[in-house]
């Protein structure tokens, strides 16, 4: 027993294995008993998980994935890391074009841009197709723990055209998928790729793990049913607990010296001396055994005391170096031994040690092209995003955030989930399915933080305004007292919405500005007094801004709201530089270079945001509040004046590509002959997705026999289709696009007007709708 105890003392914290990723290090350093993730979905039992649960589950899932990859790998090149589909450690000489400082960028030799060198063949990409859930979190962190890149896919997306684009383009080899999505959304081909572990209790026809990928599943050659895995894993944990319980009982039994067998009385003096000696030895043995037991009891007592201590501290999850062989997967084991070697001498050929410059997360975002682009972030850029926000918005382990955002965009993933996990805070996930339910969830007293898109605040205002006056007063009291910060972003927050929400909640929403490629770049100050409605504040620490084509005169014409208190200084196209910037667009060096802006004066590299902004002077704060704000008090504040391109639509916090929507609509056979999509301003959703369409005669005859198309007239205003027609056309759109991308309003025309060059002038179309 004592040997076992001593053995346990030779422990190595898991956090050491994950030095390249601050999120993992923090998760594995958090006290095991702290609440970490809760999931509250109407109609399902609430779930609550601690950091201890998360730590154990990450390690267990990483073990399963590594076994599956190992089994599925058919690489015979003798390089185990390659055959496992792991990422090579990133060379220090290889950086993203937006990352290098001036000296590095200008260095003639010894530096390479990642987009020029990296092959982007997808071998280490793991697609995660799960709704916001505990399973999602375990999957993402297990993927990171093995050094793979996580590629979250929106569960709300259609398989054809949307999910297929991400799978094909990312060339993901592994897919971690929620059972219901696997069964209802994906073609059966994926089920044949289920790994052995996921298959064990599956009622889906099992197959071998080495089925090669087919065109039907793109490069995916391994599927892990995370729902099934979780059930199986919980069962195993339960069984282990039962066995451990039995072992503990065994240990608790007082170990008494065995009953001495009656000894014959000594007959001679030699026998008498020997008997005395034996008795002395026996007494000594018992004494030593007692001491051992005492020591062991003390050790157990101290463990129990630490567990029940007020701080509820539980030693972080560790592994026992003598049991590496059967408790740890090949990657962790390899990394552990390389770390050990590196302590003795610098390693020359690290095989399992990736670094903070390695790829970690790929988020697909809409650009001005028809297909979304994969934005690759490194561990370092994600860590920087999290670090900056935690400081600016003062996250602590005492925080509890209610997350209602989807987890396939930076807003939900980084600003909410990763900030919470890195702070040791508690994240409650609940879908924004019903604004009244969410409003009531916010007033329970346990939530300290909330972040959402403006549409969510509009919906909350509508919900609370239908409460009785007494309920409204109660809601305001609860929300203003318990929630310390409410943040709005992803789209412009109209000032009337900000004011109405303040009247109902007592909160002046903090507005910030960010992009998938950049993370959060601008933020109003933490101190509410310093926030100017209608602006997004000043650059966050470490963010450097550049205004291209900055002009004073055009600021007003571009729509900047000038007041006596806030004269517009200048406006222009915003370019950004910071450590949070992405590494590259996946498999798209041309697009990566397309967003590069080099400042002639300094030679520094910036990212072209595609947003036009105005600048106004910072407010002068009272000295006490100036001290507490984490942002530079003298930095000018920014107003977002709009996207530079008409082909980007801002809708409910999403950035949508008009071209992607047009391409999808044209895919429906015999429906539309021409399509032009643009965003039309509507306060509650920012921009509504509007499609101007010319219809195919077949559609007219079959679906809309009694509809007469309005006659074209260049001067005439464009009118929305009657609701019955609109509903029919909307159905077609929704058949090809996720519900939030599908146009909500249609305008039917005989022919879409074009200029002499044959181009559609969308700005003109928009004006004719407004007229
Ligand atoms: C929804 N609908 C459905 C379904 N779900 N219809 C059929 N089947 C379904 N499963 C309907 C809705 O009722 C709605 O109808 C329409 O489809 C559009 O759906 P949705 O846009 O989801 O609207 P909603 O259900 O009203 O939800 C509003 C929402 C949501 C909660 C605000 O849009 C949302 O979660 N937005 C957040 C986006 C986000 O995270 N953005 C960050 C990316 P109808 O139209 O008739 O009402 S930007 C980013 O990350 C950068 C870095 C940044 O700065 O943050
Ligand atoms: P995405 O590329 O999907 O990450 O969306 C980023 C875009 O969202 C930015 O380029 C802006 O156009 C927009 N955006 C984010 N935050 C704000 C904000 N507070 N106000 C206006 N637009 C915003």
Description:
Keywords: Coiled coil, Ligase. Residues 269-296 form a coiled coil. InterPro entries: AMP-bd_C, AMP-bd_C_sf, AMP-dep_synth/lig_dom, ANL_N_sf. One of its GO terms (biological process) is fatty acid metabolic process. The protein has 771 residues and is an alpha/beta fold. Among the domains are: 53-90 and 122-246 and 328-354, no CATH class; 646-771, ANL, C-terminal domain (GMP Synthetase, Chain A, domain 3), CATH 3.30.300.30. It has 27 helices and 30 strands. The strands form eight sheets. Strands 3-2-14-13-15-16-17-18-19 form a nine-stranded mixed beta sheet. Strands 20, 21, 23, 24 and 25 form a five-stranded antiparallel beta sheet that branches. A hairpin with a 2-residue loop joins strand 26 and strand 27. The site of methylmalonyl-coenzyme A (MCA) has 22 residues, from helix 16, helix 18, strand 17 and strand 27.
């Amino acid at each position: 027993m004592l040997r076992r105890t001593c053995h346990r003392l030779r422990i190595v914290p898991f956090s050491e294995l994950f030095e390249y990723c601050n999120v993992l290090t923090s998760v594995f350093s958090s006290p095991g008993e702290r609440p970490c993730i809760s999931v509250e979905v109407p109609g399902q039992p609430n779930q609550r998980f601690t950091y201890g649960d998360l730590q154990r589950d990450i390690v267990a899932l990483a073990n399963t994935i590594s076994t599956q990859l190992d089994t599925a790998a058919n690489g015979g090149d003798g390089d185990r890391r390659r055959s496992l589909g792991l990422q090579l450690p990133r060379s220090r000489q290889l950086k993203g074009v937006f990352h290098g400082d001036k000296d590095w960028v200008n260095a003639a030799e010894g530096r390479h841009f990642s987009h020029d060198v990296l092959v982007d063949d997808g071998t280490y990409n793991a697609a995660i197709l799960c709704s916001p859930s505990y399973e999602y979190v375990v999957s993402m962190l297990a993927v990171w723990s093995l050094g793979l890149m996580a590629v979250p896919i929106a569960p709300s997306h259609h398989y054809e055209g949307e999910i297929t684009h991400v799978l094909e383009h990312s060339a993901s080899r592994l897919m971690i998928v929620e059972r219901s999505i696997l069964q209802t959304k994906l073609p059966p081909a994926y089920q044949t790729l289920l790994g052995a572990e996921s298959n064990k209790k599956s009622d889906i026809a099992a197959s071998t793990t080495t089925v090669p990928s087919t065109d039907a599943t793109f490069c995916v050659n391994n599927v892990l049913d995370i729902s099934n895995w979780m059930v199986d894993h919980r069962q195993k944990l339960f069984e282990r607990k039962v066995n451990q319980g039995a072992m503990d009982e065994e240990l608790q039994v007082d170990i008494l010296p065995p009953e001495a067998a009656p000894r014959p009385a000594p007959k001679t003096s030699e026998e008498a001396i020997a008997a005395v000696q034996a008795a002395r030895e026996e007494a000594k043995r018992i004494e030593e055994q007692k001491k051992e037991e005492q020591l062991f009891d003390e050790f157990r007592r101290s463990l129990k005391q630490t567990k029940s201590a007020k701080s509820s501290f539980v030693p972080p999850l560790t592994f026992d170096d003598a049991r590496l062989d059967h408790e740890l997967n090949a990657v962790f084991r390899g990394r552990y031994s390389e770390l050990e070697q590196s302590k003795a001498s610098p390693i020359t050929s690290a095989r399992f040690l990736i670094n903070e410059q390695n790829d970690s997360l790929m988020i697909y975002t809409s650009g001005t092209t028809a297909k979304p682009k994969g934005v690759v972030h490194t561990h370092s850029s994600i860590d920087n995003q999290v670090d900056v926000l935690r400081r600016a918005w003062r996250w602590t382990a005492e925080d509890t955030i209610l997350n209602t955002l989807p987890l396939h965009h930076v807003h939900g993933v980084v600003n909410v989930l990763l900030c919470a996990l890195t702070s040791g805070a508690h994240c409650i996930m609940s879908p924004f399915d019903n604004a009244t339910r969410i409003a009531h969830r916010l007033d329970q007293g346990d939530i300290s933080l909330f972040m959402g898109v403006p549409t969510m605040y509009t919906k909350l205002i509508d919900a609370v305004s239908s409460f009785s006056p007494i309920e409204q007063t109660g809601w305001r009291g609860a929300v203003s007292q318990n929630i310390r910060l409410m943040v709005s972003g992803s789209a412009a927050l109209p000032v009337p919405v900000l004011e109405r929400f303040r009247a109902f909640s007592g909160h002046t929403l903090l507005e910030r500005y960010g992009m998938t490629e950049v993370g959060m770049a601008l933020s109003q100050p933490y101190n509410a007094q310093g926030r100017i409605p209608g602006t997004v504040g000043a650059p966050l620490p470490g963010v450097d801004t550049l205004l291209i084509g900055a002009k004073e005169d055009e600021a007003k014409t571009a729509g900047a709201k000038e007041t006596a208190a806030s004269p517009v200084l200048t406006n222009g196209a915003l370019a950004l530089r910071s450590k949070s910037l992405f590494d590259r667009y996946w498999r798209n060096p041309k697009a990566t270079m397309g967003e590069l802006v080099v400042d002639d004066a300094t030679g520094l590299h910036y990212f072209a945001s595609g947003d036009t902004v105005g600048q106004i002077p910072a407010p002068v704060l009272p000295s006490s509040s100036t001290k507490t704000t984490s942002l530079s008090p003298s930095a000018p504040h920014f107003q977002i004046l709009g996207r530079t391109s008409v082909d980007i639509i801002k809708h409910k916090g999403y950035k949508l590509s008009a071209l992607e929507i047009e391409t999808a609509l044209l895919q429906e056979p015999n429906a539309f002959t021409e399509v032009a999509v643009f965003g039309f301003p509507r306060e509650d959703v920012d921009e509504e997705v509007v499609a101007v369409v010319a219809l195919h005669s077949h559609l007219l005859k079959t679906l809309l026999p009694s509809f007469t198309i309005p006659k074209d007239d260049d001067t005439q205003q464009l009118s929305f289709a009657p609701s019955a027609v609109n509903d029919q056309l909307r159905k077609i759109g929704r058949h090809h696009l996720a519900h939030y991308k599908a146009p909500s309003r249609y305008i039917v025309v005989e022919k879409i007007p074009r200029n002499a060059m044959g181009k559609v002038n969308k700005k003109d179309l928009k004006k004719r709708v407004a007229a």
